[in-house]
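Good morning C.,

I know you're traveling, so I'll keep this short. The sequence:
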Amino acid sequence: MRSFNPRANYNPYQSWAKIVDCGDVPVTPFDNALALRQMSEALWELGSRKASSSASGHASHPRILSLGGDHSIGLAELRALAKVYNQPMTVLHFDAHLDTWHPGAYDDTWLDKDKPIEDEQSAFTHGTMYWLAWKEGLIANNSVHAGLRTRLSGPGDNENDDTQGWLRIESDAISCEAMGPSGIAEKILKIIGRERPVYLSVDIDVIDPGLAPGTGTPEPGGWTTRELVQVLRAIEDLNVVGADVVEVSPSYDGAGEQTALAGAQVAFEILTSIVKRGEKDASEDSGHVRDEL
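The C-alpha cells, ready to paste straight into the viewer:
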C-alpha cells in the first residue's frame, strides 16, 4: 500500500498513531430526533475514551475523522467534542453554503408556533445544524467558512451568520492576486490560531461540480480539487481534534468516480496533518503521548 505523503514527508499509517476504522454508526432513517441522538451518543462514546497512552491536554483523547453523506452529522460531532474538551469548538468549515440558516427562515405552515423552533424535528437539517449548534453554545466565535458561493434569501442570511460569530471567505477570494490558496490559509491561521481545538469540516461541494459532481447541492464557480488540497496542506499546523468529509453522493458521481477520489484525497490530507501535528506535540511534551485516531 502506497501510503507515504510526499508533500509532508510523512506516512500517517506507519508512525506513532494507531488508526482504527470504527465502522458505521447505526442510524434510523425514520426519526430525525432519534438519529441525532444515536449519532451524538456514538461520537461521545468514541471521543470520550482515553487513547492508548494518554496524557494531559488534547492528546489524551482520540481524534475522530468521519466520512460519509449528510452534513447534519456536524451537530452530533460538536456536541461530543464540546463535552470532551469542556469548551465551545472553533469550526473551520469548507463549503459552498453557510449551513447556519435559521430553521424558520422559510415559511412552513406545519410548524407549531407555540413551540421553540429548535424543538421541531424538521429544524434539524444539513443546512441548519450549525445554527442549532450555536444555540446550544457549541461553537466558538472565531469560526470560519471558506469557499462560499451560494445564493442567499437576502442580506439577512449573512447578518444571521455574523450574529453567530463566523468569518466568511468567499470562493472568489482564491483567484485574487494577493490571496490564492496560501493567502487563504494564512488568513485562516491568523483568525483561528494554532493551539485552540478545531473541528474541521469539508463539504465536498466546496469543489466545483465540474470536478466533483457527486453531491446533492452543487454550486458552480467552486475551487478546484488542487486548490482545496493546497489550502488544507498549508493549514497543517492547526490543532484539529475532529474532522469530517461529507456530502459525497455516489449516485450523482461521474463514470470516473472523481468525487469519491477527491473526497478520499481530502481525507488523506487531513489524516496526515492530524497525525503529523500529534507527533510534533508529543516531541514537545515530556510524556511523549501516543494517541489514537
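Safe travels,
E.
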